[in-house]
Amino acid sequence: MRTLIFRTAAPYLTALMLLFSIFVLLRGHNEPGGGFIGGLIAASAFAIHGIAFGVRQVRKTLHFHPMAISGFGLFLAVLAGLVSVIAGVPFLTGLWTSPTIGGLTVDLSTPMLFDIGVYLVVVGSITSIALALEGREDD
Amino acid sequence: MGTGAQSLTFLALLLPFLGAAVAPALTRVFKHNAAWLLALLPLWMFIHFAGFLGTVSAGGTIAGGFDWIPSFGVRFSWFLDGLSLTFALLISGIGTLIVLYSGGYMKGHPQQGRFFSFILMFMGAMQGLVVSDSFMMLFVFWELTSITSFLLIGFDHDREAARRAALQALIVTGMGGLSLLAGLLVIWNITGVQQLSDLLGTGDALREAPFYLLALVLVLGGAFTKSAQFPLHFWLPNAMQAPTPVSAYLHSATMVKAGVYLLMRLNPVLGGTAAWETILPVFGGVTLLVGTVVGIRQTELKQMLAYTTVASLGLLVMLTGFGSDRAIEAAVLYLVAHSMFKGALFMVAGLIDHETGVRDIRRLGGVGREMPVSFAAGTMAALSMGGLPLFFGFLAKEEIYAALTAGSTWGLLLTAVAVTGNALMFAIAFMVGLKPFIGARGDIQKKVHEGPALLWIGPLTLALAGLVSALASEAAHHLVSSPMASAVAGSVLEVHASTVPHIGLPLMLSLVTIALGVAAYLLQDRLRDAVAGALKAIGWGPDRGFDQAIRGLLRFSFVITKIVQNGRLDIYLTVTFATVALVLLVPMFLYGELPEMPSLPGLLPHEWTIFAIAVIGLGAVVYAKDRLTAIVSLGIQGLAVALLFMLFGAPDLSFTQFMIETLSVVILALVMTRLRLSPSDHRPAGEKAVDVIISGACGLAFGLLLLKVTEMPFDATLSRFFEAHSLAIAHGRNIVNVIIVDFRGLDTLGEIAVVMIAGLAILALIRVTTPRKDRPEAAGEG
To answer: What is the pLDDT at residue B446?
Structure first.
């Protein structure tokens, strides 16, 4: 699939999709979206990039092994639960805080951290499967 | 009893395991002399338990324990009466001697520490078994003895024979343990108690229950495997692959008696019925004869002793099931006597082997001058085993004959069996305990001298105990035999046998036994050849049967595995989906649960269009010329469904569906390139038709199921809860996402863990199949 049009478009597509995936992830709490969907979008972005430029390129860009990203996501999700335990409420209870940063009120919460964990698990797992299938003997 | 004594008893139960933990370290520091230190543990246990002798001989019992699993009423509790106390004393007493003996016997062995550890672990398990009060504890310790026995038999695990023997013993006794568990559960079900001490108070409840026979057979399954009754005896002679201290301790003095212990323990509630008094004497009697006859054919010291152990266990089972108080007294006396003389003889056999390097009885002879202590110990043990006056074995044998001849014609038959068996055991006793030391010098290469103290303390002490206990028979009976016999019978018994011979039938039978025994001893070579010839003519034995059974089992599993795990993805998929379709469709038709056909909904034109796209996509899948087109067509259908989700108010679902469809097409396409399939499906139409039917049935089934589900009245409690609280307590307007990350966060945590594990598994599958391109079917679904 190394056609000129595809190879030219792929970087923009990938960048846009990644940005979009983060947007979807963050808006998920109030509008359609969330970690699962965001993760799938990001995984497709990496898959497209892989088809256009080869697996090695994607792996180099990602720097971490996709499975490690997945593991870090699971770690974040558990951490989100443990924060509640440390705060003295049952595991995974949602905690919220709304600090004002630069005149802007930002809602931060453990469910958000948890959702980021979900996002990373999905990105990591699907990407590593896709890359392993795309790659030939060289990976 | 006070809490102090209670915690001491608990400590006594725990101590061997603690000892097992430190034994390797101690052995590293003190080498074989660690035995002296480690022997202090069982010695202390012996002294502790001996402190209960007063209470128990006065008719009392000692009980104690803690709650273990209170919700199931399971306790960690112990119960000491005459029976368990005698066993506890035998285990700790002989255990002390065995630890010392192991110190000498295994001296210089690189794994001596591990050996000590195993022996002590076994000691703890056996100790726990005999003092257990709760069923659960009894079972756990019972299995623990099987496992430690496995470890000890296979101690020299680089020898094939040792490994086979260990596995065989584990399989046979392990199956017996399961049978025992089932039996105990049946007993619990019948009586409602799960403590042995409570069970003993239930009277005839068990005997009169309709499931009595089931309970009996299951319990016997446990007892007969552990106590090596014919035809399940074969594992015991094979267990002689273990180092000699193990043979002396586990496979003669203690563990193999666990089955007899169980029978004696349950005699008051299970015994006395026709089934009990038939099954036990028949199996016991046959085992006695088989054990002695096959034993006389053996030429290796340990094998001879092993078969007499089988025979002795048969004798004990026979006596336990005979059904008279006298027989129980006889069984008790013989059990104690056997533990002493057989333990001693095994240790002497090991001592001879250790010092001369010879185990073959035909090559042994005339080493008595160099090994005087072993000579004395061996002879005394043989005298006790042969049942000659002044020794405890004599008391036992007199009592056996007195008990058996007091009965009916049935008793006479058993008497004949007992006389034959005892005569042959007499012969074997002297072959092992006397023949190596007297007569012409055998064919021995090594320079012979007496073994070190560690090696002869054990056998000498046990042999002397056989003499002392007989001379002080009154005291022995008062402290040990009478309380134990009373516990077995369930009523107070007084044992009176003494070493002074009384003129009477038992003495006459003893004389006959001795005469036959001496004859057998003198004619041993001819007897051996005759039995060997007969066994060769039969050719088949349970030992070979075991191998055949295992081979058959392996072949059977192999065939089953080949059918179930045939390694062909298309068959897996066909079976899976056909099952799904059947499971959904058959009950619906069978019980008339088909949904009402809904009326056609009034849809807008663009909605109809999307439906049409989905249907066309499906049609394209079936008629597609090549696989890639089929995959893309499937994607069209999926995207159409996603659009429908969006139109009918499930944006989140639709969103996810879009992504899933896109990724599925990409990944399926990638899998196709990996598998290097031909671009199109070349199978004949018939095979394709089967696939079409199965997938059609699956689709139909799910369609019907969904229709049925939507017809059910919808319980909106949860929806209302989520609607009401999503924003209020979880600060989110997107209910779906709030459920995923907050209300049901724990579920999600599990799911993402599964996603990651599945990813890892797929990754592994892809890696595994990369170098093997000739087997494309194993690459997984992607």
So the answer is: 78
| Model pLDDT for residues B47-97, shown as the tens digit of each residue | 999 999 888 888 888 888 888 888 888 888 899 998 999 999 999 999 999
- Torsions phi, psi for B580 (to 5 deg): -60, -45
Give the one of B733, B742, B766 whose C-beta lies nearest to A30's C-beta: B733
Q: With bands split at pLDDT 50, 70 and 90, how would you rate the model's confidence at B481?
A: confident
- CB contacts, 8 Å: B667 with chain A: 129-130, 133
Residues B337, B393 contacting (CB under 8 angstroms):
yes
Spatial neighbors of B3 by CB under 8 A, at least 6 apart, are none
Which residues on adjacent β-strands are paired with residue B360?
B300
Give me the pLDDT at residue B1, please. 46
Q: Tell whether A138 is within 8 A of chain B (Cβ).
A: no
Residues of A (90-129) whose Cβ lies below 8 Å from B = 91-92, 94, 96, 107, 109, 111-112, 114-115, 117-118, 121-122, 124-126, 128-129
Question: Which run of H or E residues covers position B653?
Answer: helix B651-675
Contact state of A126 with B660 under an 8 Å Cβ cutoff: no
- Shared domain check, B312 and B191: no
User: Is the CB of residue B91 less than 8 Å from the CB of residue B252?
Assistant: no
Residue B31 within any structural domain of the chain: yes
What confidence tier does B779 reach under pLDDT thresholds 50, 70, 90?
Answer: very low
Q: Are residues B159 and B190 in the same domain?
A: yes
Domain closes at, from B522, B549, B569: B522
Domain span at residue B361?
271-522
What own/partner pairs with CB < 8 Å and gap ≥ 24 does B522-530 have? Answer: B524/B296, B524/B427, B524/B431, B525/B362, B527/B296, B527/B427, B528/B296, B528/B297, B528/B299
B318 and B338 inside one domain: yes
Mutate to test the interface with A, among B752, B754, B762 (most CBs of A within 10 A): B752
| Residue B777 confidence class, pLDDT cut points 50, 70, 90 | very low
Q: Is residue B80 part of a domain?
A: yes
For B689, the token pair is 């038709």
Spatial separation of the C-alpha atoms in residues B476 and B90, rounded to whole Å: 13
Residue A102 distance to chain B (closest CA, Å): 22
Say whether pLDDT at A139 is over 50.
Answer: no
pLDDT per residue as tens digits for the range B138-153:
999 999 999 999 999 9
**B759 and A91 in contact by Cβ < 8 A?**
no
* Chain B residues with beta carbon closer than 8 angstroms to that of A130: 663, 666-667, 670
Q: For residues B83 and B484, what is the distance between their CA atoms, to the nearest angstrom? A: 4
User: How many folded domains does chain B comprise?
Assistant: 2
Report the distance separating Cα A19 and Cα A22, nearest Å: 5
- What distance in Å separates the CA atoms of residue B197 and residue B79, rounded to the nearest whole number? 7
**B22 & B100 share domain:** yes
Q: What tokens appear for B408 in the block?
A: 């009916």
CB contact under 8 A, A92 and B752: no
- Same domain for B30 and B86, yes or no, is yes
Last-in-domain residue among B498, B522, B546: B522
Instruction: Report chain B residues whose CB lies below 8 A from the CB of A74.
Output: 752-753, 756
State the number of CA atoms in the 13 A half-sphere of B136 facing the CB.
Answer: 12
Asked if B246 and B339 sit in the same domain, the reply is: no
Nearest to B766 among A28, A70, A133 (CB): A133
pTM greater than the 0.90 cutoff: no
**For B402-432, how does the pLDDT look when each residue is reduced to its tens digit (9 = 90+)?**
888 876 777 888 888 888 898 898 888 888 8
Q: Could you state, in order of their start, the residue ranges of all structural domains in chain A? A: 4-134
Verify that B97 and B155 share a domain, yes or no.
yes
Query: Do B178 and B319 share a domain, yes or no?
Result: no
- The mean of the pLDDT values for chain B is 87
- Cβ-based contacts of B651 with chain A (< 8 Å): 32
